[in-house]
Known about the structure:
Strand order of the largest sheet: 1-2-13-12-10-11
Number of strands: 13
Low-confidence stretches: none
Radius of gyration: 26 Å
Bound molecules: glucose-6-phosphate
Shape: globular
Strand content: 5-15%
Helix content: 40-55%
Structural class: alpha/beta
Amino acid sequence: MIDITKSAAWARLETLQAGLRKTRTIDLFNAGPERAAAFSVEAAGLFLDYSKNRLSADARAALLDLAGAAGLESAIRAMVSGEKINTTEDRAVLHVALRDFSGRAYQVDGADVAPRIAAERVRMAAFARKFETGALKGFSGAPLDTIVNIGIGGSDLGPLMAVEALRPYWLKGKRAFFVSNVDGQHLADTLEAVDPATTLFIVASKTFTTQETMTNAQSARAWFLKQGGAEKDVASHFIALSTNEKAVTAFGIAPENMFQFWDWVGGRYSMWSAIGLSIALQCGWDAFEAMLKGAHRMDEHFRSAPLARNMPALLALIGIWNRNFEGAAAHAVLPYDQHLHRLPAYLQQLDMESNGKSVTKAGASVACATGPVLFGEPGTNGQHAFYQLIHQGTDVIACDFLAAAKSASPLGDHHEKLLANFLAQTEALMLGKSEAEARAELSASGLSAAAANALAPHKVFPGDRPTNSILMERLTPETLGALVALYEHKVFCQGVIWGINSFDQWGVELGKALAKDILPEIARLGEKKSPPTAHDGSTRRLIERINALRAAKEE
Ligand code: G6Q
């Protein structure tokens, strides 16, 4: 395995970056009027303009060489052909198979998994149609119309994000809730809003051992039994989405009420599998299938387009340029679309859990920075909050701006204003404002020379802040699917170039184990506990303080 930082392409990128340091991005436009067209690409209903990055044609060519040196094309082939590229867990990575309607075979351990995927999809579709038509009845005989998805991380963020994104497609009279946090307030608040007689609980957990999900599922079951449901009614009010049939059965859910997926579906890549059932129930099966097909379109593009025209690969390479050569340690995702308000949280997991790694696949320390800190909020809200730092802070933050040209809810001139802000921000971030410009503006507004001089430095915007613009006609199930697939493949490409395994998550596993050890040391309410002996001094004192507070009598 090669150390990518020792490649000729890496050295060339360093040289090119040094040469560009004094170049303004706008100079790159002035040098070649075709830049906007030459630095953009279209695929699967999405348009990506990456021309507002301080990236020359030479630097782009060197990035493509870097992808070549990392063996990106063969890595893509390895993933889609079911090789066990998740080496630390000895697993294949085949979320693309879940949304492939082409009839292609996908081999895992010598067997084609495509028929199993198709069969499970048929079961899900039948269940979704029953829910849609009111054929699924609760214990009172009334149709089930509410779902509560109980899951966390990959078993929560994707479905929740997609259900929010597809709000215009919600089936009339159906409601979806998502409970993830082990904080009992999350479940309690949700249960207050639902009717036990018409609620379907969906226990979503790949392993069916996750503490938060199992605790919430048990409490939901206990609540259901207290609210008029009988043991025999659990079967019609609780279903499971999991890979672990044994644990599902032990919980009391029969196999016929379980929808399954497989170990070659990573948690954060699982919204295309049975884990996406809540999307299908809230938005209808047709919308869910359209989302899968949109993702499939992006997959087909990803598999076949040359890297120079390959949207996920290009997005990945621009990210590498900004992260490793321009020094951007953070990446903001800024959807100018209220329905995409959970997209940044979803991508935070996808990107940071996949590429937040310091060790290469070969077990050596990485020689360069890997995944950036990802954050974001919908525009325009973010503009009135953290954009200040993006415009004038001391760090360079790379940004993705996203927008749909048409709104699902046209209202007056709202959408025109939204789009104007979307465009104005990327332009301002690139152009910036010099001190002379600031001074001239202040003088023109009537300020004295002294006052203009004093204020001007505060009104300077350095500019050359890198942005991508991702545009679509409308946010639909198809474009949502394509968008998510775009980011999945981007993250994968970056992992390949950095030489890391994007598909394991040992940091998450650690968290799961740690809390279990401390749990017996936390006092029940009113209980007096002897001080802990293990742990570092800070943790010991915090446990003592928490236990003292919990032991104290209520006023
Ligand atoms: C995803 C992660 C993690 C996982 C949750 C829930 O890639 O591994 O976010 O999805 O910890 O796990 P279960 O689905 O097994 O409950």
